[in-house]
Amino acid sequence: MNAHVxxxxxxxLVLNADFRPLSYYPLSLWSWxxxxxxxxxxxxxxxxxxDQAVHSPTLQMQLPSVVSLKSFVKxxxxxxxxxxxxxxxxxxxxxxxGSPEDLTFDHIIPRSKGGQTTWENxxxxxxxxxxxxxxxTPAQAKMFPRQSAFAPTxxxxxxxxxxxPPNYLHDSWLDYLYWDTELDP
Length: 185
What we know:
Pfam families: HNH. By secondary structure, the chain is an alpha+beta fold.
């Protein structure tokens, strides 16, 4: 197919079979090429289109802007422990001073003192706070996280992700995205 759009254009919102996004942050998006492939493999239904079309010698097809999976994908209940997910849990703020700048992650109990790299022992920290705390315990440094470190649920990460809507939201997506955090307790 020959398209008159750039490679990175025309992202497609991917919904589960229940018409909820697979994830909010990062928002579940596919390239238009992957979406069209999934249509032809009969894995998705097209829910909404862009005004843009792609053409082949025998076919013209409007680009999908929203697709839904035909088979429900059960969301994971335990999110992966990743640097990004720690930042998302902590709402992209240093847990010592509140700054959103230059984030790293800090072991509350330093690894040199037996602290492990777990949800319950790692928080987002800006570089200046992380350097200031150094190899000390919170009591030694007199620096205590604003919230206790905890293993979040997928629901909690999705709720936090809704606080950070993406820069680009196509109008056809808005009926399927809920950025108001009061919708889900």
